[in-house]
Amino acid sequence: MSDTWTISVNGRTYGPYTEPQMRAFAEEGRLAAHSLVSRAGEDRYQAASADSELAKLFRPVPARPAFFTAEGDAAPQNFGRKEEETSTERTHYIIVADMKSRSISGLEEEIFNFGPAYPVMPQAWVVSSDMPITAIRNALVQKLGKLDTLFVADATHNKAAWFNFGPEADSRIRRIWQKVPEAPAQRAAG
Asked: How many helices (H) and strands (E) does the chain have?
């Protein structure tokens, strides 16, 4: 069937998405049985599990590997972290914001509260802090409006956190951030 769906998240509409895209969202855990969806041409949103085509995505299936996250694996890393580092060492972050609905000053003030920071370009900073990436993201989200976006990269531990990107951008960021093992020939050539 060539149906498409839109997804409603906190009053914002995303889509349209095809059935393969919706299946991928469900497999990644980004589309749940309770997610509000609407078929193309319909105005009423309903739980994804109530849609005849999407309901099959939420039936119990054999166990599969967990979907990836935006964290590096335990393999040797190419940047940021050294093996001799300890957990008490400060973490280095790159923070980028796109402020459309609020002033940048409140966000920048919060960033400078985390530790030594330097604005490397408009709406982008490098920061050294003892705080974990989730705490930084959560503190900064409080300073954002509904149109603002945020991306935080942990250069020490190869992690990323973000806010207010749509489902498609979220999926693409996760795919890009996922480490793909290099083949031995690629390592030797690089």
From this structure: 5, 9
Q: What is the pLDDT of residues 52-83, one digit of tens each?
A: 888 888 776 454 444 344 554 444 444 444 44
Domain architecture of the chain: domains with CATH: 4-58 (3.30.1490.40), 91-177 (3.30.70)
CB count in 10 Å sphere of residue 18: 13
- Low pLDDT (below 50) residues in the chain: 1, 61, 63-69, 72-86
Q: What are phi and psi of 178, to 5 degrees?
A: -65, 130
> What's the whole-model pTM score?
0.52
Burial of 83-118, coded b for 16+ CB within 10 Å and e otherwise, reads eeeeeeeebbbebebebeeeeeeebbeebeebbebe
